[in-house]
Amino acid sequence: MKKLTTGLFITAFVLLFAGNIQAQNISAGGGLVYSTDINNIGISLNGTYKYSEKIEIAPSFTYYLEKDYITWKEFFVDGHYKFMKKEGMDIYAIAGVGITVVTINWPDNWFGSDLSSSSSNFGINIGIGAKKNFGAFDVFAETKYNLSSSSHLSIGGGVLYRF
Fold it and tell me: What average pLDDT does range 29-48 have in this prediction?
């Protein structure tokens, strides 16, 4: 199941960006995320593709640091709808779909070996974000609520480089 899910997302990502893409419409970067229900910090890789003046497609991958033998990984493809622009800053609504993978690793248990278990949950998210232009870079901040069987609120930000 894990390989199938990964394969589907890689295929969707390639198809999404295949075709007539102009370099100035793409940005990529990273940042930090804090999740309230997970109660942990994550490292994110983010990208955006400017589809039109008001709409961006934004894939992201977040790896939350291991805590209490549990790791969380999220892959989302969001849509950004820019509803306000003021002095080089965009304010946008966020809606997206994705997968959250939760893995538990129990080291050296009483069976004498390491045990591992993982599950994946499909989810949607909604939120709001802001992005400020600084030349070739954009600095962004977002708040998103992931609606799934492992629902949580994520607050994060980072830097994107525009190609």
Answer: 94
